Amino acid sequence: MLDLTPKEITERTALRINPAKTCQPVGAMYAALGVHRCMPHSHGSRGCCSYHRTFLTRHFKDPAIASSSSFTEGASVFGGGSNLKTAVRNIFDIYKPDIIAVHTTCLSETIGDDVGAFIQDMDIEEGKYVVNCHTPSYVGSHITGYGNMIAGFIKYLSRSTGRKHDRLNIIPGFVNPGDMREIKRILDLMSIPFIMLPDTSGVLDAPMLGRYTMYPPGGTRIDDIIAMGDSPLTLALGELTCEDPANELKRKCGVDYKLLPLPMGIGATDQFIMALSNFSGHEVPYALEEERGQLIDILLDSHPYFHGKSVAIYGDPDTVLGITGLVLEMGMIPKYVITGTPGEAFTEKAQELFSKFGVTGCTAKAFSDLFELHQWIKNDRVDLLIGGSYGKQIAKAEDIPLVRAGFPILDRYVHSYMPLVGYRGAMRLVEMILNTLMDRQDRGCADEDLELVM
Amino acid sequence: MKAQSLLLEERQGFIHQKGSCGSVSIQCDTESLSGAVSQRACVYCGARVVLNPITDAFHIVHGPIGCASYTWDIRGSLSSGAEWYRNSFSTDLSEQDVIFGGEKKLWEALSEVTRVHSPRVIFVYATCIVGVIGDDVRAVCKRAEEKFGIPVIPVMSPGFAGHKSVGYRMACNALMELLSRAPKAPKRGGSVNILGDFNLAGEMWIIKNYLEEMGVKVVARITGDATCEELMHAGEAALNVVQCAGSMTYLAKRMEEAMGIPWIKVSFFGIEDTSQSLIHIAQALGDREAEKKARELIARETRALEPVLCRSRELLGGKKAAIYVGGGFKAISLIKQFREIGMETVVVGTQTGRKEDYDIINSLVREGTVVLDDANPAELEYFIREKQADVLVGGVKERPLAYKLGVAFLDHNHERRHPLAGFVGVRNFVKELQLSVNSPVWQYVR
Fold it and tell me: How many other C-beta atoms are found inside a 10 Å radius of the C-beta of residue A35?
């Protein structure tokens, strides 16, 4: 179908075709779902909330709850203050969350609703909270919204009492619950007490219990968000996603932060583990050394099947950079590396990776889209695609195998339960890459070339 | 949890239990409450789902990226030809555009589309903020139409202007605008337009085949698998048959006014409704030959389905169903369809049903059945559990809810796996029900 994509590239300045991003509010909704007993609230039209819930449900295959101010014509003229007031009262009455996390939409931002002031005017019961953040859909992407919502929680809740505790703050990038579980497992292996915000594990990968609970057992506790202000240090995992919230905490409570790439691949995971070791003063336990050794053993065993192959990687900035790092470590060529999220920092970081590994002829671009990527591929193809489900149309049109990694994955299962981060996550990604390339080889080869032992 | 503590006082009027309080009066067709976790969507969503299946149209969403992202290739509407509608086009408005206006960018986007491709028609969707920032989308579309020589139709669909039903109306207005550009042509006797089937999993093709077997010519399919060219001939049909009444009754009425085409409501879900609809079409056309052929077709297909139904009654009879779908017409057909295989409907709700739909629903269901309008997950959960439903029929947001409750699920929305319309649809319907209801996985959760 996308074969209708013309090979000849013409300049586009206004038209976006087949985006590699979506809008801020869905990122904010995802972050808010990572707080225990939190109701994400969309201050805008009914449809925004419905679309975001649908989008998250399609990726996580789990119910994603959120409420909406349900703007009407009147609200869009006179402001949504009374809608929000009614909404907050209704939500506490009926759904009984401990906290409501309000994010805005393009509409409420454009008409100039001052949500912060609306909240200040509300009578909120002791022990209940309403927080907010600004997520205009016309700025940044869902990644920006994710960071903004985390910063919103910190801004309202975190407090510095002057008495430090020893728990390390972790702000994970825009990753799956499976990744968050893996990060926590590594912290446990390192015997480091921590607070992670947000934490969608146990919420969007909740087990089947035969009943529906609006607030599953997972999610960061409000008390812990408050206590983040007394932490000795914050590790922000995702240089292009997590700096704002980490910075908000530093500004408000004076907690220093260290910005790290998402721990994907060998180098970035090493960096994360060294940062943990430096923080705690503990040696890296054998269990982690063993995992690292296993990963390298796997790469050695299988390198003939991927070394030198070219890849196109698309998706969210930190995830794409993380995967780019791993494929470079594997000796693959990340020929095209794109994100839909705007920001030149992405391009610079990708270029740094290209130079570090001495590869040439690779292109990185932020604020790009899948139509453009497809056109590049039509002019000079690659051996493999890595990214979310939307790449399947290119994969089919060009007969290029696709590894699904990142967000959103709408057409497969299990992905949200499993990690891509850490050495174990890297092993999983390497396995997916190998299986995909080798299955393709088996499917495409002549009968006489079909090998049993590979 | 008690129903009293679960249900907002303001929501009580939207929920009705048959036989509980004598007269039937459910509140519906109103705005959702602020703060409710509603399953409902917006005006843009309604407009987009109606127009999206037009296969050779370029759908350009004028607004920030979200609205285009969420509607990219989601409907499962199939095409027998062009595939352009499965791409996502947007002006991806940024902060600068919001401050200085987005008209220039829209104009550029239209120029860029027409420079590279040769669209037959372009629909421009005006989303929430477009009016607020003062863009005159109509004017830009008019200018583009003059310059590029193709229909460029504005779809006025700001999300806040109501719920999905308002969007259906906006889409119908856009279709009327397109049709108004068609040259006058004589009527084709004995022919029909099919309104309100979106060719999900190829359902339009099934219906069209039935009608062709009856000797009834289909002029335009609105909008499943439609092309711009085909739509332009819609005025020539002798009769409009309306399948999804919620979205298309308005268009049928407007076409009746403007073009003198009479219309009838039909439904192709379940044996009873499919059979009645085929005969009804023949009768409305006054075509005895077609009616005879319809009866033959129905007899043949019904006979072929007998063993399937027999087996289904064994496997599914006595099970209880909950229904939560978009429009009233589908809910009505589903209740009948469950009855055909000996299943009882214990909960039934819609997002946008109208009073007349709820009246019919009430006449179909047994005492004690819960009827709800614009339900939220907590309400659905409560009544599914209270009424001990074995299966929920719904859409994407209801699926994980059903599974979390340990209840089987059947998708009767965009993500349906197989066609559920017509006689073959009955076969798929019971097959999918059986697969879900009788999956071995349930024994591990109960």
Answer: 32
- Only one residue has tokens 């049909």, namely B237
Each of the 446 residues of chain B gets a pLDDT tens digit; together they read 344 455 666 677 778 887 644 444 667 766 677 888 876 789 999 999 999 999 999 999 999 999 999 999 877 899 999 999 999 999 999 999 999 999 999 999 999 999 988 899 999 999 999 989 999 999 999 999 999 999 999 999 999 998 888 999 999 999 999 999 999 899 999 999 999 999 999 999 999 999 999 999 999 999 999 999 999 999 999 999 999 878 899 999 999 999 999 999 999 999 999 999 999 999 999 999 999 999 999 999 999 999 999 999 999 999 999 999 888 888 999 999 999 999 999 999 988 788 889 999 999 999 999 999 888 778 888 999 999 999 999 987 788 888 888 899 999 887 787 999 999 999 999 999 999 998 999 888 75
A-chain CB neighbours of B163 within 8 Å are 46
Nearest to A148 by CA among A203, A180, A102, A110: A102
Tell me if A193 sits within 8 A of A166, measured CB to CB: yes
Question: Tell me, what's the ipTM?
Answer: 0.95
- Give chain B positions within 8 Å (CB) of A51: 41, 45, 66-67, 70-71
Q: Which string of b and e fits A92-105 if b means at least 16 CB within 10 Å?
A: bebbebbbbbbbbb
Task: Determine, for residues B70 and A22 on separate chains, whether the beta-carbon distance falls below 8 Å.
Answer: yes
* Residues B167/B352, Cβ–Cβ less than 8 Å: no
Record the tokens describing residue B29, joined without a space. Answer: 């067709």
Determine the Cα–Cα distance for residues B389 and B377; give it in Å rounded to an integer. Answer: 15
**How deeply is B9 buried, as exposed, middle or buried, from its count of CB atoms within 10 A (0-12, 13-18, 19+)?**
exposed
The chain A residue lying nearest B41, using CA atoms, is A47
Tell which CATH classification among 3.40.50.1000, 3.30.1490.20, 3.40.50.1980, 3.40.50.720 matches the domain B43-179.
3.40.50.1980
**Coil, strand or helix: which one is A385?**
strand
Residue written as token pair 């201050």: A43
Strand order in the sheet with A310-315: A363-365, A333-339, A310-315, A384-387, A402-404
Q: How many CB atoms lie within 10 A of CB A329?
A: 18
Cβ-defined contact of A15 to B158 (cutoff 8 Å): no
How would you write B289-346 as a 3-class SS string?
HHHHHHHHHHHHHHHHHHHHHHHHHHHHCCCEEEEEECCHHHHHHHHHHHHHCCCEEE
CA–CA dist B134, B140 (Å, integer): 12
Helical pair A243-253 and A142-157, crossing angle rounded to 10 deg: 20
Which of B 335-394 lie inside 8 A of A, CB atoms? 377-378, 381
Looking at the partner chain, which of B67, B161, B400 has a beta carbon nearest the beta carbon of A62?
B400
What totals of helices (H) and strands (E) does chain B contain, helices first? 18, 14
Q: Using the 8-state DSSP alphabet, how is residue A383 labeled?
A: S
SS3 helix, strand, coil % of chain B, rounded to 5?
50, 15, 35
Pull the structure tokens for residue B105. 């960018």
Taking the model in full, what pTM does it have? 0.95
Instruction: Enter the CATH code of domain B191-295.
Output: 3.40.50.1980
Write out the two tokens for B261.
């085409």
Q: State the best of B2, B15, B58, B65 to mutate against chain A, taking most chain A CBs within 10 Å.
A: B65
Instruction: Please give the interface size between A and B, counted as residue pairs whose CB atoms are below 8 Å apart.
Output: 248
Q: Do A69 and A80 touch, CB atoms closer than 8 A? A: yes
Q: Which fold has domain B1-30+317-415?
A: Rossmann fold (3.40.50)
Residues A240 and A345 sit within 8 Å (Cβ to Cβ): yes
What are the residue ranges of CATH 3.40.50.1980 in chain A? 24-139, 168-286, 295-445
